[in-house]
Write a structure and sequence with these properties.
Blueprint (H helix, E strand, L loop, with lengths): L2 E5 L9 E4 L5 E8 L6 E5 L11 E6 L2 E10 L3 H15 L4 E7 L2 E7 L3 E4 L6 H6 L1 E10 L6
Antiparallel strand pairs: 1-2, 1-7, 3-6, 4-5, 6-10, 7-8, 9-10
């Protein structure tokens, strides 16, 4: 396993959900997952007629998110729906940790309720016949890992 996202489910008394590039249920799609982007929220001093430009007086990182694309696999469509329900429960927690592992490097993020959708925005007959669906996830995380 060279890349994975692990969603801690201890607060809902369920097994952790592991999205990985080798999973039989939650396989990371070719794009895998992304790094949380960093955006600064900067507060500036009021403009002055005597000072050029703007003077920053405070800066903090905004809330960010981990984007991911996952293929949910099952032996039949019922298994796919059951796996999606488990993933939805994991992503609906008020507060949980997400652990990113890539190439042996691990980072843990504090996360909150996440958004997800079917990547094609439709349940297609091919997906049902082949027992898989592709989901796009957006997991909001606190901008500093390990906190």
């Amino acid at each position: 396993m060279s890349a994975s996202l692990t969603i801690d489910c201890s607060s809902i008394s369920q097994p952790d959900v592991v999205l990985s590039d080798s999973s039989d249920t939650y396989r990371l799609a070719l794009g895998g997952f992304g790094r949380p982007g960093i955006t600064w929220r900067t507060t500036y001093a009021p403009d002055s007629i005597n000072v050029h430009g703007s003077e920053a007086i405070a800066a903090v990182k905004e809330q960010t998110s981990i984007p991911a694309e996952v293929i949910v696999l099952g032996t039949d469509w019922t298994a796919v729906e059951t796996a999606i329900d488990a993933l939805d429960a994991a992503l609906s927690q008020w507060s949980y940790t997400v652990t990113q592992t890539a190439g042996g490097v691990t980072r843990t993020w504090s996360a909150g309720p996440a958004s997800w959708s079917s990547s094609s925005n439709a349940v297609e007959s091919y997906n049902v016949d082949q027992a898989f669906d592709v989901l796009t996830l957006t997991i909001p995380v606190y901008p500093i890992p390990g906190t």
